[in-house]
Amino acid sequence: MNKIYKQFLAGCVFSALSALSIAAENDPLVGKWKTVDDRTGYSRADVEIRKKADGTYEGVIVTTRNVPGTDKMVICSNCPGELKNKPFIGLPFIWDFKQDPKNPREYQNGKVLDPIGGKIYKGKARLSTTGRHLTLRGYVGVSVIGRSVTWVKY
């Protein structure tokens, strides 16, 4: 390849990566979130949410904490299938969430893993108007039968 072509190709790659970076910065769901356990009030983990190439969102655990008086859990011993006995760090915690085209602050049709109980639930989420709080709901069947937690963005 000639030098001009290589420079052009490098410029295209740089432009594409810059555009992806800017899009991620402007996406209020993308980033690091502190989870807060609704039962204890303690933060159990930090989750990083990313937008995948197919337009869905996925969150992986990047930090874990123990509730005072309990041991820190490091392995997902109750998780199903391929996730069983995987380390919590790097574990997919939420996935397949899609932004609602009618309401850009809502995300639907996702899956939520309860890493302590090992169950996978249907999920939906809603961003606050400020984009600093995310209310995540995991449920069985219909949304009425479920549990909601609120996360705080870093």
UniProtKB/TrEMBL annotation:
Residue ranges of domain DUF2147 in the record: 31-152
Keywords noted in UniProt: Signal
Signal peptide: 1-23
Pfam family of the protein (one): DUF2147
Statement: the UniProt record of this protein carries the keyword Signal: yes
Keyword Signal attributed: yes
Entry protein name: Signal peptidase
Species annotation: Acinetobacter gandensis
